[in-house]
Amino acid sequence: LLNFQCLIEGSSDASVFYLTRTLWAILPLMIVLGCILIWSIIAVFGTMCGGKCCCKCSKDLFYYEIFNPYERIKLSCVTILYFIYPTLVQETFNLMSCRKVCGEALYLRAVLSVPCWEGTQLVYFYAVGIPMLLLYVVGLPLAVLVAVWRDDSRKDDQTFSKTLGQFYSHCHPEFWWWELTVVFRKIVMSV
Predict the structure, then answer these.
(1) Do residues 139 and 146 make contact, with C-beta atoms less than 8 angstroms apart?
(2) Residues 78-125: pLDDT tens digits?
(3) Closest-CA residue to 99 (of 78, 88, 113, 79)
(4) Beta-sheet pairing, 52-53 with 48-49
(5) Which is nearest to 149 in space by CA: 176, 187, 189, 116?
(6) Is there a contact between 42 and 53 (Cβ–Cβ < 8 Å)?
(7) What is the DSSP string of 73-141?
(8) Average pLDDT over all residues of the chain
(9) Whose CA is closest to 74, among 183, 162, 179?
(10) Which residues of 113-147 are buried (b: 16+ CB within 10 A; e: fewer)?
(11) Dihedral (CA of 91, 93, 95, 101) sign
């Protein structure tokens, strides 16, 4: 969608590759901060009408039951991260994807001029690749698994959490963990 090679004239393929991976590394954090900011602004300005509270009381049922900013922030973050997860996995593994060239040395698959496991590639692997692997590829699915496991509403067949229900509402209650197999399949397909 956005080609940094065109935006940054005179830069090498390697520097654009590393810039892109760094942006992908901070994107989930920016999404979370953006959701917090947007829903906080909506919460503040949504309750105010010309300096007066639109509802009779700021603790009105509408505000806290229907428009709970905390729930909206969680739902927005979970949904957006769910959609970008396969790309996060793919971008993480692009930092480690090497291939042999001329039967001798390993080079980065995305930028064949960069030797693997030495110099800048090794620094980016440790500084960006490992944190992305731990936080996103492994951390996000484990966080969802723990949250779903701890969610008591999944035990009742008729009700489920608005935020986490997308991960287990389609399954029988005893198979609440099935989304982990779906995530594993996404990881395998992204690699």
Answers:
(1) no
(2) 889 888 988 899 999 999 999 998 878 899 998 988 999 999 999 999
(3) 113
(4) antiparallel
(5) 176
(6) no
(7) HHHHHHHHHHHHHHHHHHHHHHTT-EEEETTTEEEESS-TTSBTTSHHHHHHIIIIIHHHIIIIIIIHH
(8) 78
(9) 162
(10) ebbbeeeebeebbeebbeebbebbbeebbeebbee
(11) negative
> How many helices (H) does the chain have, and how many strands (E)?
9, 4
Rounded to whole angstroms, how far apart are CA atoms 113 and 116?
A: 10
Q: Are 124 and 95 in contact (CB under 8 A)?
A: yes
- For helices 140-150 and 69-94, the axis angle rounded to 10 degrees is 140
The helix, strand and coil proportions of the chain, stated in percent and rounded to the nearest 5, come to 65, 5, 25
Task: Please answer whether residues 86 and 186 qualify as being in contact, where contact means their C-beta atoms are separated by less than 8 angstroms.
Answer: yes
Parallel/antiparallel/unpaired status of strands 98-101 and 105-108: antiparallel
- C-alpha pair distances (Å), 141 with each of 40, 47, 58, 101: 26, 35, 36, 35
pLDDT at 133: 93
Integer-rounded Cα radius of gyration of the chain: 22
d(CA 16, CA 166): 36
Q: How many other β-carbons are positioned within 10 Å of the β-carbon of residue 61?
A: 9
CA–CA dist 67, 46 (Å, integer): 10
Tokens standing for residue 169:
């509402």
